């Protein structure tokens, strides 16, 4: 599938039983504290520091990391304090359960296309994204996909310089009303930016197909064939370098939100006798640069 299988290596960080047990004991002890006290505890605790330091190194090197067996799950305040170790907290830990009739991307049960989160936010786009799987998909079929954009760019430098040039130079429109679905501010946000850009000598990406398609639909403008082709070509190259991960309950995935794209395959639904549905559910949070 990929021209360079070495570039697809996934940084998994498995926490040892001893360290995980230590974290579990501490988490039980502090979980009823106020958030401020939990934040201070985790920031100064040696065990949490060890996990932060190692996972942050892997994140900086590989742009994403999966932490397994961390010793806590379904503890929102502990997860929040852990996220805060990595940067400026974005403001919330969101609970994302899959819903059948729900228009917002993160809650859809069908597949989500490659994108980065809050791509339309030119000033405050989060640097890192965090998810923890609370409950696995009922059929265990859901996978999270990640693509490093450096892999796409290195490939295009050799095989399609013309497409690479367009991706750095052709402005693509995106439209949204508010950054997040739960934001109070629903003002129109309209951007015209290229998909790739350079910042601090690093390659970065800004891509959200839903916001692009929403622009053309809402403004009743027909997208040019050239732009549609550029986006299709971009996605087909990106998918050559996609790493697919199955995340188990408790696993934490951290990704660099400006240097990777991510997607998710569809989720299954389990129907209970009372008519309720079991689905995969996760905590989601972000940090910005300080
Ligand atoms: Fe996302």
Topology, please?
Blueprint: E1 12-14, H1 17-30, H2 35-44, H3 46-62, E2 64-68, H4 76-84, E3 88-89, E4 94-97, E5 112-115, E6 128-135, E7 144-148, H5 149-159, H6 161-169, E8 172-177, E9 188-193, E10 196-199, E11 202-205, H7 209-218, H8 225-240, E12 243-245, E13 252-256, E14 260-264, E15 270-271, E16 277-278, E17 281-288
Parallel strand pairs: 1-2
Antiparallel strand pairs: 2-13, 3-17, 4-17, 5-14, 6-13, 6-17, 7-12, 7-14, 8-9, 10-11, 15-16
Helix pairs in contact: 2-4, 5-6
Average pLDDT confidence is 92
What is the chains' assembly state?
Answer: single chain
Taking Cα atoms only, what radius of gyration do you get, to the nearest Å?
20 Å
Q: Ligands in the structure?
A: fe (ii) ion
Number of continuous helical runs: 8
Low-confidence stretches: 1-7
How many E strands?
A: 17
Would you tell me the structural class of the helices and strands? alpha+beta
Shape: globular
Q: What is the CATH top level name of the domain at 110-128 and 137-245 and 259-279?
A: Alpha Beta
How large is the share of residues in beta strands?
25-35%
Major sheet description: 7 strands, mixed
Distance between the termini: 38 Å
The CATH level-2 architecture of the domain at 110-128 and 137-245 and 259-279 is identified as: 4-Layer Sandwich
Q: CATH superfamily assignment of the domain at 110-128 and 137-245 and 259-279?
A: Clavaminate synthase-like
In N-to-C order, the SSE pattern is EHHHEHEEEEEHHEEEEHHEEEEEE
């Amino acid at each position: 599938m990929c021209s360079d299988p070495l570039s697809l290596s996934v940084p998994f960080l498995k926490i040892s039983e001893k360290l995980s047990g230590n974290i579990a004991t501490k988490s039980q002890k502090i979980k009823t504290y106020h958030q401020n006290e939990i934040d201070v505890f985790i920031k100064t605790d040696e065990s949490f520091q060890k996990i932060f330091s190692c996972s942050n190194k892997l994140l900086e090197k590989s742009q994403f990391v999966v932490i397994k067996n961390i010793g806590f799950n379904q503890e929102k305040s502990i997860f929040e304090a852990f996220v805060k170790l990595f940067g400026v907290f974005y403001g919330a830990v969101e609970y994302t359960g899959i819903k059948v009739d729900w228009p917002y991307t993160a809650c859809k049960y069908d597949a989500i296309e490659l994108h980065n989160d809050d791509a339309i936010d030119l000033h405050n786009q989060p640097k890192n994204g965090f998810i923890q799987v609370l409950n696995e998909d009922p059929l265990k079929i859901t996978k999270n996909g990640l693509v490093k954009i450096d892999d796409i760019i290195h490939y295009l430098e050799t095989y399609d310089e013309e497409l690479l040039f367009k991706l750095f130079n052709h402005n693509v429109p995106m439209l949204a009303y508010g950054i997040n679905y739960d934001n109070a501010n629903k003002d129109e946000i309209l951007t015209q930016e290229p998909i790739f850009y350079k910042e601090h000598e690093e390659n970065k990406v800004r891509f959200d197909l839903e916001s692009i398609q929403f622009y053309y639909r809402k403004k009743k403008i027909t997208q040019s064939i050239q732009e549609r082709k550029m986006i299709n070509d971009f996605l087909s190259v990106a998918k050559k370098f996609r790493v697919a991960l199955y995340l188990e309950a408790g696993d934490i995935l951290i990704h660099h939100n400006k240097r990777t794209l991510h997607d998710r395959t569809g989720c299954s639904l389990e129907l209970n006798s009372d008519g309720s549905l079991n689905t995969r559910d996760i905590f989601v949070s972000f940090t910005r640069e300080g």
